[in-house]
Amino acid sequence: MAQSEDHLFGVYARAPIEVERGEGSRLYDRSGREYLDFVQGIAVNGLGHANPILIAAMTEQAKKLWHVSNIFRIPGQDELAGKLCATSFADQVFFTNSGTEAVECALKLARKYHASKGHEERIDVIGFQGAFHGRTYAAVTAAGNQTYLDGFGPRLPGFVNVSLDDHEAIRAAAEAPTAAAILVEPVQGEGGARALTDAELHMLRDLCDANGLLLIFDEIQCGMGRSGKLWAYEHSGVAPDVMCIAKALGGGFPIGACLATREAASGMVVGSHGSTFGGNPLAMAVGITAFDEISKPELLDNVVKVSGYLKQQLEGLKQTWPDMIVDVRGKGLLIGVKLKPNNREIMALARDHGLLVAGGGDNCIRLLPALNLTEADAREALERLETTFAAAREKAKKTA
Ligand SMILES: *Cc1c(COP(=O)(O)O)cnc(C)c1O
């Protein structure tokens, strides 16, 4: 029996299962039924459920100190920021509690950067169709998804939304005297696991350099090892000026961060920005541990190996199930499977067969398993997916 949710905003279309506990790649409901979890909090639990190393880090910190204000130095903030900077293009970090707050910080940083150089007119952030940057007013305006904008009044000024395929429009927007920054996910997540080509990323970098814009990468979903490298941008060799991360950064504990070069962050001075909870001691303790685990070469190697296996097998399934699979895409363990039947229906059927997957744009299902997924669990997930396809075929036959 589904619990009543009378006292909650009705904003989620929730799956009708009562999750109770998790262990690695498995999730269990209250009746003890087991699922292979290829959602993992939507790419959040990079080390799976109930990771003992994270539990130990959390427990130890919980006994010491939970929260102090950012008016004091917070244990762990400089340590985690140092690790993030040592492994990326960045020099400085601002900690948030979520992805969209990291995006909000990046947007404010971009405008402040130009204002501090005497260019207050440079406010336009160029975003792309199919993007997702979270749910703050600015983030939904930046992504431009009509579904998330309808009914919320006028769009905020200073945002331009263009198609990634319309290079002329991108160029025109970047050359406008009011342009401030380009905001892009190197691998679009919600949009359906579209990985930008190296050429596309180079083009955006060149446009930013030629016109004095900041290049902001939203690696909230594709970063932190998911692509098979620690940062997705490393595949292309195109570094941004600013990068938003969150999701797997805390291994399941809410953390986000906005990373920037010293130059890009130069407008962010005392009083420019702040957060009550951002970078709190619990988040830092768990974040440091999660980062150390995820940045290990063995773990990144595992992502490459297991994602390669999944991709290859899924390509095979595309041959055997042409009435189901249209296309397999994405990068590393951010895998999009574009379907023929409705993706929501397949998600529900997969759940009935013990496999949890996420939805995505362009009629995709997304596979976002833990980064430490074993090949045995990957194989089992594929078996469950095939059982799902068989059931979908039966169903289609009956209604035909
Ligand atoms: C999830 C996500 C966000 C928003 O993160 P929240 O923590 O939900 O605010 C932003 N950008 C991308 C690419 C995401 O996948």
Automatic annotation (TrEMBL):
Gene3D superfamilies attached to this UniProt entry: Aspartate Aminotransferase, domain 1, Type I PLP-dependent aspartate aminotransferase-like (Major domain)
Cofactor note: Binds 1 pyridoxal phosphate per subunit.
Keywords: Amino-acid biosynthesis, Aminotransferase, Arginine biosynthesis, Cytoplasm, Pyridoxal phosphate, Transferase
SUPFAM superfamilies: PLP-dependent transferases
UniProt pathway: Amino-acid biosynthesis; L-arginine biosynthesis; N(2)-acetyl-L-ornithine from L-glutamate: step 4/4
Any one Gene Ontology cellular component term annotated for this protein: cytoplasm
Family the entry assigns: Belongs to the class-III pyridoxal-phosphate-dependent aminotransferase family. ArgD subfamily.
InterPro entries xrefs: AcOrn/SuccOrn_fam, Aminotrans_3, Aminotrans_3_PPA_site, Class-III_PLP-dep_AT, PyrdxlP-dep_Trfase, PyrdxlP-dep_Trfase_major, PyrdxlP-dep_Trfase_small
Protein name stated in the entry: Acetylornithine aminotransferase
Residues reported to bind N(2)-acetyl-L-ornithine: R135, S275
CDD domains reported in the protein's UniProt record: OAT_like
Complex and partners: Homodimer.
Short name of any one Pfam family annotated for the protein: Aminotran_3
Cofactor: pyridoxal 5'-phosphate
More about this protein: May also have succinyldiaminopimelate aminotransferase activity, thus carrying out the corresponding step in lysine biosynthesis.
GO molecular function, one term: identical protein binding
Source organism: Asticcacaulis benevestitus DSM 16100 = ATCC BAA-896
